[in-house]
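Dear colleagues,

For the upcoming journal club I promised to circulate an example of a predicted protein-ligand complex. I picked one with magnesium ion because it came up in last month's discussion. The inputs are reproduced below in full, followed by the predicted structure.
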Amino acid sequence: MKAKTTIVLGTGGVGKTTLSSAIALDLAHKGNRVLVMTLDPARRLANSMGLTALSDEPTMVFSAGQSGGILWALMPDTQRVFDRLVAQYAPSPKTYKRIMNNKFYETISTSLSGSHEYLAVEKLYNLIQSEQFDHIVLDTPPSSNVMAFLNAPQRMIDFCDDRYFKFFLLPYQMMGRSGQSLFKKGSDFAIRLLQKLTGVELLLDLSEFFFNFKDMYQGIRQRASAIHALLHDAQTNFVFVCGPSRDQLETSLRFIKSLKNEGIVPRHVIVNKVHKEVEEFASGPDAQRPEAIYQYYLGLYQLHRQNIARFARDLPPTCLSIEVPSLLDEVNSLEGLAALGPFINSVAG
Ligand SMILES: Nc1ncnc2c1ncn2[C@@H]1O[C@H](COP(=O)(O)OP(=O)(O)O)[C@@H](O)[C@H]1O
Ligand SMILES: [Mg+2]
């Protein structure tokens, strides 16, 4: 059985990594075999999940015992994901080696159309195919703009467009045809200019890179199309995370609208780190606080309530908003994640 997929989107610092892990742990508690894939866990959370280094293999974090639920975590080494992609599609081991040894390989593979985003989904796609898990939760990259993430497969498809390759291949082909003479002589003005600007060696390296890459366009393009389809599959469960301030909510609404234009409507939006302490002020020990401080927090609390109510009204009708309180401590242990469970247990059924 192929794994169900939950993808957690949102802007930076709002709690995507924390909530992805909490959602995954909750699913494991319910007896599922779950993998959470994350790119930037805060160090203490990573340590408590046994994620000390980038890895290609999932690490087992938690086993629920009788119910059979297990949680694994994975912090993929995206460079290696790309290496594997090349290994898989290279027409021969020789071409693979040539590409790996090319000076441009690292630069191109790391900067290639937001490859960090793309490679995360590439890895996800692989893991879904492996049928090892009931559910995979994907935490999205730290700095990533939500749309950049979703458009990454399309950019990869565009990158593998023959037209660009033809342009880059030109110097290499010219070398072949005229026995290197064109470059050596540098007779043509355009070539002389390019030589001057780039150094002919560099230009040839670049051209060679594309030459070796050209037999792989088709394969990589097909795969990127499959990944694009996965991101647009109605079965893929998107969760959007944001904070409770007016700014954060307004930005999120804009993102959710752009997602809708892409045909993606998150089933749940989690407003995270909502301050709820005030609810307990009146009866708890804090009732002794100076009145002015109490009034300040009460005002802030009411403002957040209004913001969230307005936000919830403006969401698409099929998108449910959920609130998660700000816990007193940072969430950096399995116990902390489990404490979030009751608030998020409906988002990835
Ligand atoms: N509900 C919460 N209550 C308290 N602290 C939280 C909560 N959610 C997240 N945090 C803390 O906020 C910080 C940022 O969270 P993180 O999940 O790394 O954000 P992101 O992945 O969106 O950048 C972390 O220190 C985390 O422990
Ligand atoms: Mg994160």
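Two points we might discuss: The two ends are 16 Å apart (CA to CA). The pocket of adenosine-5'-diphosphate (ligand 1) is lined by residues 10, 12-18, 42, 142, 272-273, 324, 326-327, 330-332 (CB under 6 Å).

See you all on Thursday,
B. R.
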